[in-house]
Amino acid sequence: MRAKLSLVMVTLSLVALLAGACAVEPSPPSDLEVTDAAEARDAALTFLGEKEPENAPGAGITWQEEDVTPRDKYGHPVPGAVHREFTSDEWTIKVSYAVLPPERTVYRVTINSIKLGWHWKGSIKADGTVTEISAFRQMSEEESQKLAEKFLRNSPTFTYDGIEDTLTLVDTLRARCPYCWTFIFEFDSRHSGYGDRTGQARAEVITHHRAVIAVELLEITSAVMDDRWDMLRREMIDEQGKPIGILSVAELLENPVYDTEIKIHGEVSLLGELFCPCFELTSGGQKVQVWYDMMVENDGTERPAVSVEGINNGDRVIVTGELKGEGGTHYSKGDFWAIVITLTPPPPPEEPVGVSIDVSCDDFMKIHHISKEAEVPANSSLTVTLCSNPTTGFEWESPQITDETVLTLIDHKFVPPETKDGKPPPGTPGKEIWTFKALKKGTSTISIDYSRPWEGGEKAEWTFNLTAIVK
């Protein structure tokens, strides 16, 4: 599974910190000088071997090395960053680094075992110093849930005014990729709003929140609260997941702001196809060239490279950076120099439109036994509303469903008659409402009888039968 929601490495380091990842003090420099990906791999393995001798990859493993650096349309490596992958029967090690002078190079190393379920991430400097970004641990559902909950507890919204005893895990969804889960939490805050609201005007009202947090290989890849607040970037988003307050490329070019840090959003194209460490970003019908490496000022100052690992053509991203307003030896006016690149969560899938069936008392007075048929989209709701008057002694019995693998009851309630003065006239009927969930394609029939429940009472005075065809 392509990790569409994976963040770039710069952001992942921040995420790991926010999530309470167990970062440790860097190891002291070693005698080993790290000059390439294989030596960075070995430095990481030595570090792990000392900390986790029983579970870390052992010595003597034969590694198969592959260059996974993005390439242009001619097959040439995209300049600016190097990506290497080492594999064995049980382990995969990924090493990436920006092309910098050897003494300034920092290697990012990720060690995974899909077979054994272990994960580790760290960085290695040229002098052999190892810094642990994500501790060596098993990628279990329990560990993933702990990571998600810790991230939520450390988020500004919860730490500001979250009510501790209201925090509840309400659902866990297993994703298609290995060691991937989505955890849904709910909690209450004492005020409205999101994030750290110190100094802001805020309503003192208990506010209910729902946080959906995705974890892949023990990394937080997406965290959205109430479909409105991006917890990773700490920004409001609209219903389509588009950040609020971030410029489109068209908006930027219409009123350009040069050499000032701003944020733009858009769709990535031509990544790995241009003769530069850059790609095109398009939104609002306009495009700009975004550079992520080899950014050199006129005075020779080099900007740090920004990783594009996990970014693919067609992805929507937010780029924090600067629009260059003056041409130079290494760039042109109008280039956009990236500082941070993050993936934009895809819009939530549209829920299929549900189906409603409403039968009044007048309908039942004309025909005591009513049968209907309805087509219902899979994964949508089916609502059945029937006239009901408990004052007569009659009540609707529990629905009988012929195939609950196709259709299942998820809610039932009685709605009293509407009134303007607080009390309806005696004998005024209300409504009984059942909500069903269409689970999969197939046919299932709902049968409900209106009876007096006591012994000798009239049975099935009215009946309602609905054949639901789920498509």
Mean pLDDT: 83
Intertermini distance: 27 Å
Strand content: 35-45%
Classify the secondary structure makeup into a structural class: mainly beta
How would you classify the quaternary structure?
A: single chain
User: Main β-sheet, in a few words?
Assistant: 6 strands, antiparallel
Number of helices: 6
Helix content: 10-25%
Number of strands: 27
Strand order in space, largest sheet: 1-2-3-4-5-6
Q: What does the radius of gyration come to? A: 29 Å
Structure description:
The protein folds into 4 domains: 9-138; 145-216, no CATH class; 247-343, OB fold (Dihydrolipoamide Acetyltransferase, E2P) (Beta Barrel), CATH 2.40.50; 355-470, Immunoglobulin-like, CATH 2.60.40.2020. It has 471 residues and is mainly β. It is built from 6 helices and 27 strands. The model is unreliable at 1-24 (pLDDT under 50). It is elongated, with a radius of gyration of 29 Å.
Short description:
The protein is mainly beta. The protein is built from 6 helices and 27 strands. The strands form 5 sheets. A 6-stranded antiparallel β-sheet has the order 1-2-3-4-5-6, sandwiched between helices. Strands 7-8-9-10-11-12 form a 6-stranded antiparallel β-sheet.
